[in-house]
Amino acid sequence: MFFNLIREWLRAPFVNYRLFHNFTRQDFFSQFTTSMGGVLWLFLTPVVLLVIYSFVFSYIFRMRAPAEFGEINFVIFLMIGYLPWFAFADAFGRAPNLVIEKAPLITKVMFPVQIIPITGTVIPYLTHVIGFTLFLIYLAFRGYLSVSWVMLPFIFGLQFLFTLGLVAVISALCVFLRDLQQIIALLLTVWFFLTPIIYPISLIQSETVQRLFLLNPMHSFISAYREIVLLGTVSPVHLMIIVPVSIISYVLGGWLFMRIKHAFGDVL
Amino acid sequence: MSKLPRIAVANLNKEFRIYKRPQDRLVELISRKPKHTLFKVLTDISFAVAEGKSFGIIGNNGAGKSTLLKLLVGTLQPTSGTIATHGQVAALLELGAGFHPDFTGRRNIFLNAALLGVSDENIVEMENSIIEFSGLGDFIDRPVKTYSSGMYVRLAFSIATMVQPDILVIDEALSVGDMAFQKKCVQRMNQFRADEKTMVFCSHSMFHIQELCDTAIWIHEGYIREIGDSDRVVADYEDFCNSSKSYNNIREDLPGEVESREQSDREAEVQDCRINSVSVQTLDGQDVTEVIPLSTLVLKMEVEVLVNNMEGHFGFAFMRSAEEPIASFLTTNFEGINHGPFQKGEILSITLEVEKFAMRIGEFYVLGGMADKSGLLWYESKFSKLLSIATNKGVGAIVMKSAWTVEQN
Predict the structure, then answer these.
(1) Which domain holds residue A46?
(2) For a tag site, which of B32, B88, B118, B295 has the least CB within 10 Å?
(3) What torsion do the CA atoms of A127, A133, A135, A140 make, to the nearest 10 degrees?
(4) Domain-embedded: residue B370
(5) Of residues A1, A5, A6, A3, the one with CA closest to residue A251
(6) B285 vs chain A: nearest CA distance in angstroms?
(7) Which pLDDT tens digit goes with each residue over B206-237?
(8) What is the pTM of this model?
(9) For B315-329, how does the pLDDT look when each residue is reduced to its tens digit (9 = 90+)?
(10) Does B139 share its domain with B69?
């Protein structure tokens, strides 16, 4: 039973490729069809963010990137962490509404519902991978390119699986507990500030507190990106966290979703 | 082809848990103390639909029809019991459920067909016939949100039927769309039957159920009230619907129970005759239990006179029950009929011929009655056996004798 559900979950996007493909295309492009700017927003948003963060952190706060990363602009340091976080936050923040939004469909049409959290995670990642890639191309021209960059897609993929597991759980639970919507919005803000994105972890004085941050997998993801991009290496401790955590999140999240998806019809 | 039934439903029950407050659901999970009230929607439903058959579901609003369809399609899980379906199921529970309003009709064909489990390659082949069948023309390339509800339905129906599923489940699809499209739908569904596909169909249109379904199920308050031949079930359901209407206005001039009950105290002293029997026969004297519409009925009543010089009128009425008349216009209260006086000990045979019996559905009794000389006081009456009307084609409560002419000039 357990393994059957997990197998079904793992195979979902492949077995139902057509549906997955159509859903993703539909929801991806529906972000733009009704807006005038269309796909332009995809590029405009990261650029505007880059400008505003430069202004606030470099000009007002006069923040400096930690010395171990060498002489770099703080904004580059910030954006390497912020762009992947953006993908995570977007998926995580939309998760509560994913299944609820599709209520008319779920109650009227029989289809593999597990496609919904997958599509719901793929779309923000697809959207933000564009900005992240553009930024990396810029850095490559600045001379940061190294062999270890081949690990970036791998880490990004793990972050996707980690997110997908959480999205599956949240989207399913929100059907039964609508309050989760508020909790998730709040949690996302708390999580953002507890992840060293707009500040370097080295700013924290206490060694113990620094070690506590390892409980936050997003910290490990973001540190891994920074180390790979700027230093060309990655600390094993971060890899040792993100690999198992991502896989566990993906499998358990999917399992939970598959377990309770049958009850959706009764509640929606 | 397998000989298994396409759909087999056994002892199906469905209950909904009603929670007063949403958080009760969580409280119940944690404390394990029941916080819900059960709402039973379907009780012990069993049926099977063979390949190539179509199956109708009828019943009042809230009887559980839609829930049953959702269970069949699989968007709801049964509380207990089993549902087995063999083959691909396509459902039209809500027309255009999968449509995205911002996309064009053409784009939505692909989305919707993907939901129904068709590959894009096959849809490309079907695309043109879907567009043609829907009759949308240039609208196909406009966003679906600009469609009228009729156009919406036409597109949805076109897609769902073009997909050629093994089992098609339709909820009230035909009630929308203009007449021309309804006609096309019926043709398409008949084609479906001809292709040995299985269809489950829920409608308030008794005509469509009769025309399109072999068997039908009548669900009443979650139970199977009747299952069987669709003509029969539809007729009984219509009869049931008619009888639940109020007959209060007619009751005043009814020669039945009310008056006879009012008279019952006096009856002992007034009784001057007794109705020995009331029967219904055909013209050649056979007793009738099942009436064929438009046939001729002979109503007979045998009256024993108990006093001398009795005078009075006789009457017949068709009754739905002891209190509800269907028709009560047949009395001898006019000139030229023997009103007596009759003498004690005489046995009177009263016969009334009814031609072209016009009721089409239902069950009824014949009430024979006896009134006093004024024709106002009905003091003696007797019911016949329960008679039912033979199953027949058509919709509605009555039939009439008719003749066709089609002339080609």
Answers:
(1) 2-267
(2) B32
(3) 180
(4) yes
(5) A6
(6) 57
(7) 777 887 888 899 998 888 888 888 888 888 88
(8) 0.71
(9) 888 888 777 778 876
(10) yes
